[in-house]
Design goal:
By secondary structure, the protein is α+β, with helices and mostly antiparallel strands. It has two domains: about 5-165, Ribosomal Protein S5, domain 2, CATH 3.30.230; about 170-285, GHMP kinase, C-terminal domain (Alpha-Beta Plaits), CATH 3.30.70.890. Helices cover about 30% and strands about 25% of the residues. The protein has helices at about 65-80, 105-120, 130-135, 145-150, 185, 205-210, 225-230, 230-240, 265-275, and strands at about 5-20, 25-45, 50-55, 90-95, 150-155, 160-165, 170-175, 245-250, 255-260, 280-285. α1 (about 65-80) packs parallel to α2 and α2 packs across α3 (about 130-135). The protein binds 4-diphosphocytidyl-2-C-methyl-D-erythritol 2-phosphate (SUD) and adenosine-5'-diphosphate. Adenosine-5'-diphosphate (ADP) binds near residues 102, 103 and 183. Belongs to the GHMP kinase family. IspE subfamily. InterPro entries: GHMP_kinase_C_dom, GHMP_kinase_C_sf, GHMP_kinase_N_dom, IspE, Ribosomal_Su5_D2-typ_SF, Ribsml_uS5_D2-typ_fold_subgr.
Length: about 300
């Protein structure tokens, strides 16, 4: 059977405010996501024996725990519960990882979303984006954003209340000191600030502000202080980078995002990269501004 190739993009968070905590322990956020042109690749082929197999890069977890595998199983279960298909729902999934894991770039959530979008199509299920988003939310808080296929969005709730934004393409530098951050450990830390007041700007104003300067002084990443405490090397990278260009951590870390706003800052960052320690992974990327490639067939 022919296989189809899907790209699964990473994201960054331009800011992330922790506005409170729900009774179930999950934190409410206000954040802006934008996809970037750094991709994992998934090869998917239908199987006619009804089994789901995952091969390729393991991401350091058992196959049954891998978000790509769990997404396929969750979709199949949902389809059977809703009597949506009497077909044999099977697939071979081959995952090639390029996005670092535990880096605040949402790679696992993106893989889950890509599998949901791809198998919804290949299995002819025709579930809506909103149905796929509710299946995805149980797998990870960032999954609904990737399922939405909007390249940028303002998110509230735990990340599932999404308002699309039109943000420009920008060149950014991502620096990752090869540190794996455990998102759960950051959110459960006693020192996490949890009471950021909700934004009062309209979506239109927010979009205008982010067009002018994506790292607005009045915005923060509230997870930075705890991640810096847990992983001092992430703080070292931040301290070094922020002298050169506006810099903020993405998600729960460990990746720092620097966004040069002039040719001088761009040149200074390039010189900085040339002298950075070898184990600090530096990568230039572009934010995605128009149509997402998540779920696109190559
Ligand atoms: C922080 C963010 C920002 O985009 O991204 P990453 O840094 O992971 O990329 C996300 O909110 C992360 O979403 P995701 O990575 O899907 O986290 P999940 O697997 O859902 O949650 C891991 C654990 O973190 C805690 N958690 C997560 C999200 C949230 N809004 N409140 C929480 O308290 C919960 O303890 C949960 O068990
Ligand atoms: N397909 C996958 N890709 C990446 N990580 C995965 C995947 N499946 C499960 N995981 C687990 O989820 C954790 C967080 O994954 P990832 O999405 O890369 O990081 P982050 O939440 O920081 O953006 C990883 O440490 C890994 O243990």
């Amino acid at each position: 059977m022919p296989h189809t190739v899907y790209l699964s993009p990473a994201k960054i968070n331009w800011f992330l405010h922790v506005t409170g905590q729900r009774d179930d322990g999950y934190h409410t956020l206000e954040t802006v996501f934008q996809q970037i042109d750094w991709y994992d690749t998934l090869h998917i082929q239908l199987r006619n024996d009804g089994n789901i197999h995952l091969q390729g890069d393991s991401c350091g977890v058992a196959i049954e725990t891998n978000l790509a595998y769990r997404a396929a199983v969750a979709l199949k279960t949902f389809a059977h519960q809703h009597n949506h298909s009497n077909d044999v729902l099977g697939a071979d999934i081959h995952l090639q990882k390029n996005i670092p894991t535990g880096a605040g770039l949402g790679g696992g959530s993106s893989n889950a979303a890509t599998v949901l979008l791809a198998l919804n199509q290949l299995w002819h299920l025709n579930f809506s984006h909103s149905q796929l988003q509710s299946i995805g939310l149980k797998l990870g808080a960032d999954v609904p954003f990737f399922v939405s296929e909007h390249p940028a969005a303002f998110a509230q709730g735990i990340g599932e209340q999404l308002s699309p934004l039109d943000l420009p393409k920008r060149e950014i530098l991502l620096v990752n000191p090869n540190v794996h951050v455990n998102t759960g450990a950051v959110f459960t830390h006693p020192n996490l600030p949890r009471q950021h007041p909700a934004l009062t700007t309209s979506l239109f104003e927010l979009q205008q502000q982010l067009h002018e300067q994506p790292f607005q002084a009045q915005h923060r990443n509230d997870l930075e202080s705890v991640t810096f405490e847990l992983s001092p090397e992430v703080k070292m990278v931040y301290n070094a980078l922020q002298h050169v260009a506006p810099t903020r951590m993405s998600g729960s870390g460990s990746t720092l995002v620097a966004c040069p706003m002039s040719d001088d800052e761009s040149a200074a960052l390039k010189a900085w990269v040339a002298n950075a320690p070898a184990h600090w992974q530096c990568r230039w990327a572009n934010t995605i501004s128009t149509q997402s490639t998540n779920g696109d067939i190559l």
